[in-house]
Amino acid sequence: MSEHLRKAVEDRRDEVVALTQALVRFPTVNPPGDAYGPCAEFIAKRLHRSGYETRLIVAEGEPGHTDRFPRVNVIARREGRAPGKTVHFNSHIDVVEAGHGWSVDPFEGVIRDGKVFGRGTCDMKGGLATSIIAADAFIETFPDYSGAIEISGTVDEESGGYAGVGHLAKQGLFSRPRVDHVIIPEPLNKDRICLGHRGVWWAEIETHGRIAHGSMPFLGDCAVRHMGAVLAAFEHDLFPALAARRTDMRVVPDGARASTLNINAIHGGQTDDHTGLPSPNVPDRCAMTIDRRFLLEESLDDVKAEVVAILDRLRRERPGFAYAIRDVMEVLPTMTERDAPVVTAVAAAIEAEFGRAPDYVISPGTYDQKHIARIGHLHDCIAYGPGILDLAHQPDEWIGIDDMVQSAHVMAAAIHGLLTGAAEPA
């Protein structure tokens, strides 16, 4: 039956390409959240034709949801002939902005040199198409399977996933007994299994000053200069300390095995949308958003305390320094055990496909596994997909057609292993 399953995948080579192209042509750019509804409806219709029961779930009340930009998710379930385990493939449908530097239309799905080009091909509409094709091939080959297969297309992963997987997890849609195993086709490469991710703490630091006329700055107190002192302290004290820390987690690329801090944004003084010449004011407020990625060996409390200690020291030592700090997002590191059922099933399928054991890695950034673990309390979850991680969010993003087909072989064999308990089709 192994050859029958392989043939069922190979017979769908053109279909996985066409499906990837169709998904890319929905410009589901986040922010603001364009075309979520039409894309979710397209996926629902496609899966309904394959025998799935489908639902469109609007994340009302969640961050980002508005009447103009509704957060629309799709979830589909196909029951087998008898009760059993459930395998769920979850992919996000939102993509980042196209940006500049493209040699092709980023929303056309151009085929060139055995690759499909376009925003979201790699991250991660190619992975979504691959999972759909893999499930179709499995269903054709094993029509009497026991258990259930679920596929979801969710929103807002690029901005935290709260209106996507986070919203669905609150409704129990990523918890036992409904779901047993989850595979997220993020672009971590076709022969690697991603067990989890580093932790993240986003925060906004605000320094305060006093407004005055720009020709007499001595009568005011410049909040931007105070923020400059924060940056200087970070450069002198914090960045070297973070770079010296290393984790035993197999984070890729190697630079991400250290703790990191990124300055996401700084805003001070007049807003960027003023017209005409600026007015001569001393800014009384400056805000900085920080993105701190931390390791399994670090605690969130210590991560926060390290930053607050610098700010408190500046308040003691720098005349007029005042600040406020606000949490924006916090996610603990997560790592699925190597002997978890979904890991062993996908590992066996990778070894059968490529003739070698998989590489086990940890993602430098978070993805929707965080919601499945912390809200759904489901830890049999990994990321596995055909895309190349370094291409995500880049101009001329692409996914290899052969890579999708090979990953579909792996996914289809993993479904077989998880629903039957067999390592690979016999």
Automatic annotation (TrEMBL):
Domain Peptidase M20 dimerisation per the UniProt entry, residue ranges: 196-314
Name of the protein in question: Acetylornithine deacetylase/succinyl-diaminopimelate desuccinylase family protein
Q: Which domain of life is it from?
A: Bacteria
**InterPro entries per record:** ArgE/DapE, Bact_exopeptidase_dim_dom, Peptidase_M20, Peptidase_M20_dimer, Peptidase_M20A
Listed Gene3D superfamilies = 3.30.70.360, Zn peptidases (3.40.630.10)
Write down the SUPFAM superfamilies for this protein, in alphabetical order: Bacterial exopeptidase dimerisation domain (SSF55031), Zn-dependent exopeptidases (SSF53187)
- Cofactor list: Zn(2+); Co(2+)
User: Per UniProt, which keywords does this protein have?
Assistant: Cobalt, Hydrolase, Metal-binding, Zinc
Source species of the chain: Oceaniradius stylonematis
Q: Name one Pfam family in it.
A: Peptidase_M20
